[in-house]
């Protein structure tokens, strides 16, 4: 239930006029100071997003449906000239002229670039060629190892918050004009150490990374959302996220998996989704991803397998999941024969009940189920 005040942002007559991320963040901060949550209601139009819109406890970000578009501004990049160390809040760079306060920031070197190794922040001020930002660096980065700063960032973030809600809007990553960011630290919509948050009736398209990512969370619900054309995976729950609900979503045409279930995702419910034509797998699942339900999904025409169990060592597999009434069909490509369900080692005790696992007229999905010799307890009824 929504509580607190409502602040409108956009064109003439709105409480805050402007179609920028700074205008939206000004509204969010006003509600945050009030301490009672509330709603930021966005006007119809295209908002220029230079830095992440950061939500806080009890705040709803609501658009006017497909006519409210949050579009990422173009990418910029430079090298840093002095090592950027763990815990620092600044980086000295070759050319700061392309950056501006309020802009999102991504920092990495070649040895520490993906996963949890990159750092993200928002620029607070610029002094000469020194960028100052608001989050401590996560690693020690070397300038002589390709040390780089870009403005790649999430478009919406909810970090360390509860009861945030995002609904009725479009996130446009403008992927061709932006640099990539990994799904552990950013996404079109990114949640981190968050709980009881809702994402509803949102479109995420063309983001140069994962569409929606939530890490170290509990009770996240993603409903009636569409994620298409992203350079990573469509959805990426991970890092011990529990009790996720994903329902009535379309995950289509993303470069990697439609639904990438990362480490220790447990007790979730994934139902009535359309997961089609993604570049690798419909659903990728693996490291201790256990006791989840997958019901009434259509998983078809993905590049390799419909459902792919990643290889894990013994004790780290995906166990105790139940798969019911899914259609898993037509996966694979002309170059490589596909599989309906492909199970690498160490996963166990997954029950498949009442599913349709079949090929199509193209003959791409040539094998319904492949089980590694070390997999155990898989049942198909």
Which helices and strands, and how do they pair?
Blueprint lengths: L4 E6 L5 E2 L3 H14 L3 E5 L2 E5 L3 E2 L4 E4 L5 E5 L4 E3 L10 E3 L11 E5 L10 E9 L2 E4 L14 E3 L5 E4 L5 E8 L16 E4 L5 E8 L6 E4 L5 E3 L2 E3 L6 E4 L6 E3 L2 E3 L6 E2 L8 E3 L2 E3 L4 E5 L7 E3 L2 E3 L4 E5 L12 E3 L2 E3 L8 E6 L7 E3 L2 E3 L6 E7 L7 E2 L1
Parallel strand pairs: 1-2, 1-3, 3-6, 4-7, 5-14, 6-15, 7-15, 14-16, 15-17, 16-18, 17-19, 17-20, 18-21, 19-22, 20-23, 22-25, 23-26, 24-27, 25-28, 26-29, 27-30, 28-31, 29-32, 30-33, 31-34, 32-35, 33-36, 34-37
Antiparallel strand pairs: 8-13, 9-12, 10-11, 10-13, 11-12
Description:
The chain is mainly β. The protein contains one helix and 37 strands. It has one helix at residues 21-34, and strands spanning 5-10, 16-17, 38-42, 45-49, 53-54, 59-62, 68-72, 77-79, 90-92, 104-108, 119-127, 130-133, 148-150, 156-159, 165-172, 189-192, 198-205, 212-215, 221-223, 226-228, 235-238, 245-247, 250-252, 259-260, 269-271, 274-276, 281-285, 293-295, 298-300, 305-309, 322-324, 327-329, 338-343, 351-353, 356-358, 365-371, 379-380. The strands form four sheets. The protein has a 21-stranded parallel beta sheet that branches. It has a six-stranded antiparallel beta sheet with strand order 8-13-10-11-12-9, with no helix packed on it. It has a five-stranded parallel beta sheet with strand order 5-14-16-18-21. It is globular and about 65 Å long. The two termini are 41 Å apart.
């Amino acid at each position: 239930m929504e509580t607190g005040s409502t602040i409108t942002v956009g064109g003439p007559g709105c409480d805050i006029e402007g179609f920028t991320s700074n205008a939206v963040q000004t509204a969010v901060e006003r509600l945050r100071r009030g301490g009672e949550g509330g709603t930021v209601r966005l006007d119809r139009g295209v908002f220029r997003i230079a830095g992440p819109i950061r939500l806080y406890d009890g705040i709803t970000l609501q658009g006017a449906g497909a006519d409210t578009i949050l579009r990422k501004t173009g990418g910029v990049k430079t090298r840093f000239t002095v090592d950027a160390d763990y815990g620092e809040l600044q980086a000295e760079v070759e050319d700061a002229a392309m950056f501006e306060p309020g802009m999102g920031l991504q920092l990495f070197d070649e040895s520490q670039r993906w996963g949890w190794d990159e750092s993200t922040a928002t620029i607070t001020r610029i002094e000469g060629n020194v960028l100052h930002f608001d989050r401590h660096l996560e690693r020690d980065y070397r300038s002589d190892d390709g040390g780089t700063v870009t403005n790649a960032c999430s478009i919406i973030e909810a970090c360390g918050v509860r009861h945030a809600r995002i609904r009725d809007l479009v996130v446009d990553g403008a992927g061709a004009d932006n640099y990539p960011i990994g799904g552990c630290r950013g996404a079109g919509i990114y949640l981190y150490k968050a709980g009881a948050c809702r994402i509803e009736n949102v479109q995420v398209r063309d983001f140069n990374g994962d569409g929606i990512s939530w890490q170290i969370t509990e009770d996240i619900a993603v409903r009636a959302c569409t994620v298409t054309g992203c350079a990573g995976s469509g959805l990426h729950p991970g890092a011990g996220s529990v009790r996720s609900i994903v329902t009535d979503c379309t995950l289509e045409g993303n470069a990697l998996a439609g639904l990438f279930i990362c480490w220790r995702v447990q007790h979730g419910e994934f139902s009535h989704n359309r997961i089609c034509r993604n570049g690798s797998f419909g659903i990728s699942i693996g490291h201790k991803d256990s006791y989840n339900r997958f019901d009434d999904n259509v998983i078809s025409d993905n590049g390799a397998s419909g459902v792919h169990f990643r290889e894990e060592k013994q004790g780290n597999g995906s166990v105790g999941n139940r798969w019911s009434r899914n259609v898993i069909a037509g996966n694979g490509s002309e170059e490589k024969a596909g599989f309906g369900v492909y199970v690498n080692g160490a996963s166990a005790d997954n029950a498949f009940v009442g599913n349709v696992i079949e090929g199509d007229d193209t003959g791409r999905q040539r094998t319904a189920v492949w089980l590694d010799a070390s997999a155990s307890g898989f049942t198909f009824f």
